[in-house]
Design brief:
Elements: H1 8-19, H2 32-45, E1 87-88, H3 89-106, H4 112-132, E2 138-143, H5 146-150, E3 165-169, H6 175-192, H7 197-216, H8 225-231, H9 242-256, H10 259-268, H11 287-299, H12 307-318, E4 330-331, E5 337-338, H13 345-364, E6 369-371, E7 374-376, H14 378-392, H15 417-420, H16 437-440, H17 471-474, H18 478-493
Antiparallel strand pairs: 1-2, 2-3, 4-5, 6-7
Length: 499
């Protein structure tokens, strides 16, 4: 016999119980629109290449202008992934996918100037990614020797470390990087469809070609002996390449409306492990995001047998609710989603993003999620997301915003080379490899404010020491910020959803 779903009073009681698990801190008004603007501005601080006249973070200057010359290619542009000066394509492509997904789902809620800025941020990456896959059966996966780079502390404008180009050629595999690049280009094609249909078509056409490479030569890019020492242990494929194949197919299916890709998801889901690691989402593991993305097709009554993806998405959402029997997401005492390892806020931002996207999908189809005796509504998922956002913006035990430049209290000593060394305008002399150490070891605040950067964040005890040496906590990354753009866009338009 079917179990009764909780009525509205029961749902409200469950929600109150859920929120009562964590202490509330002195809440202040959150200017989500201001945080949104700053979260997009951050990407200008991560730019590589020739900077345009309208560059707003003016302490940055041109860098990496010779990238690619050693292999006879133009590989200028793109983003440095974090506080170093290397261009790692695997996380950069994921960053691009998440920026594009933010625009696809929440772009209509962004103020027009910020939507334009978000598209500029996406294009800065897609222009570069198109260069990396311009040659058939060849994909450039990284620029910059990370060992040499990490042994220096210097501005990107002063780089004198090898700008080694790491390349994979058929029949060697790169399913992870190629699959994520295909996803990024497909998602971006949707983001640009209204404003630049010609560019959107180029992105989609290239995405299909890159996906074919990913699927034809299956395997992890970091298993290639000729590049392994350059990409590992930094952005190795730790969780396997299979999820990127499904992820790339899912985005191509959505962007192209070509049923071939939905058929691929149906026919390859089991063999490629679609039901494995379903509670993870980030630059290396796409499963939870994949399941949420494909669930849109299921909720819209797809003719394909994709219900297992919806079931996995439901299961993931159930892990966010303490009362559900499957609950296992860890929270800090202050209420922040926590998972072991560095850059913890990447989990808070990606999970918040998925919660909001899934809430919208459920609401449009008048559906809820059932977790045993507990029923999760879209509003409950939004509450979970808003709690994480407010924590990041300052409602936490330290009273500190973990977004640089937001509020009066934020990290001043972030692990970031360009931010921590005086700019060329203030210090025109070259700061060579080891000469930057004095700035790295200084207890002074960084001279250049990387506005909008979200740092790795506090540990499992909610403690954060503002120390640039502790890179696991103090280093910002593009893939922390990218999903946060969509999250902030939602709450900027709906600030009182949790009241």
């Amino acid at each position: 016999m079917a179990k009764k779903s909780p009525n509205m009073k029961q749902r409200y009681a469950i929600l109150l119980l859920l929120l009562s698990q964590f202490p509330f801190f002195a809440a202040s008004y959150h200017d989500y629109a201001d945080a949104l603007s700053k979260s997009i501005l951050f990407f200008e601080g991560q730019r590589s290449g020739y900077l345009p006249p309208d560059q707003r973070l003016t302490w940055r200057d041109h860098s990496g202008l010779g990238d690619g010359w050693t292999v006879g290619a133009d590989l200028t542009g793109g983003y440095y992934d974090a506080g170093d000066n290397v261009k790692f394509n695997f996380p950069m492509a994921f960053t691009t996918t998440m920026l594009a997904w933010s625009v696809i789902e929440f772009g209509d809620r962004m103020p027009p100037p910020e939507l334009r800025n978000a598209l500029v941020a996406i294009r800065w990456s897609t222009d570069y990614l198109l260069k990396t896959v311009a040659q058939p059966n060849r994909i450039f996966v990284q620029v910059g020797d990370p060992i040499a780079d990490h042994n220096c502390w210097e501005r990107p404008e002063d780089m004198d470390t090898p700008r080694t180009v790491y390349v994979v050629e058929a029949p060697n595999p790169a399913s992870d990087v190629a699959g994520e690049t295909a996803a990024a280009l497909a998602a971006a094609s949707m983001a640009f469809r209204a404003s630049d249909p010609g560019y959107a078509e180029t992105l989609l056409r290239t995405s299909s070609r890159v996906f074919n490479y990913a699927d034809s030569y299956r395997g992890a890019y970091s298993d290639n002996a000729n590049i392994r020492d350059g990409v590992c242990p930094f952005y190795c494929d730790f969780d396997g390449y299979q999820d990127e194949l499904l992820w790339g197919a899912a985005w191509l299916g959505r962007a192209s409306n070509d049923d071939t890709y939905l058929s691929y998801l149906q026919n390859n889901g089991k063999t490629l492990g679609a039901d494995e690691n379903i509670n993870e989402f980030g630059w290396d593991n796409k499963h939870a995001g994949l399941n949420v993305l494909v669930s849109k097709e299921v909720l819209e009554n797809s003719k394909y047998s994709l219900q297992s993806y919806r079931a996995s998405a439901d299961s993931f959402m159930c892990t966010l609710v303490p009362e559900a029997t499957s609950f296992h997401i860890e929270f800090t005492p202050g209420g922040l989603i926590y998972r072991p390892g560095g850059s913890n806020l990447q989990h808070a931002t990606t999970i918040s993003f998925l919660s909001l996207v899934y809430a919208d999908y459920l609401e449009r189809s008048s559906q809820t999620v059932y977790c045993g005796e507990v029923s999760i509504s879209p509003s409950m998922l939004r509450q979970v997301a808003q709690r994480q956002v407010n924590y990041i913006l300052g409602e936490n035990p330290t009273g500190m915003s973990y977004m640089v430049g937001y509020s009066s209290s934020y990290p001043k000593r972030i692990h970031h080379r360009g931010s921590s060394i005086p700019s060329k305008k203030d210090h025109p002399q070259v700061v060579a490899c080891k000469e930057g150490s004095v700035f790295f070891n200084s207890s002074d605040p960084n001279p250049n404010t990387l506005v909008g950067a979200v740092v790795g964040g506090p540990g499992e005890d909610d403690v954060y020491d503002d120390d640039r040496v502790d890179f696991k906590k103090s280093e910002p990354t593009t893939y922390i910020n990218a999903p946060f753009v969509g999250v902030l866009a939602y709450f900027a338009a709906n600030p009182n959803i949790g009241s």
